[in-house]
Amino acid sequence: MEIVEFTKVERQLMQVLWKLKKAFVKEIIQELPEPKPAYSTVSTVVRILETKGVVAYEAFGKTHRYYPLISKEEYMRFEADKFLDNYFSNSIQDMFSFFVNEKKIDLKDAQQLLKMIDKIKD
Fold first, then answer.
1. Is this structure's pTM higher than 0.85?
2. Contact 75/3 with Cβ under 8 angstroms?
């Protein structure tokens, strides 16, 4: 399955579906922050996600219970790969250097990363 980029609203709804595993539109709305969107708005966005092939549903009469077809981890991998490619030419070193220079990673964080790398090597 080809993963597609989500809009901000689609991403927000997917976060809810990943959390709940399966949900009716009214349950999705309950998890969203105030001001709550209209039922019809959420229903429309969920159907868009369905047409994108990332959400499916179980029918219960006229209502549908929706569930994600891709995991949060799969989407995170897609976004991380896209980010790395778009901004750092697929160079982890360039990305790491950028975050160090921007003071987004301090020495303690860098040491933790090095420990993680050492564990992977073992």
1. no
2. yes
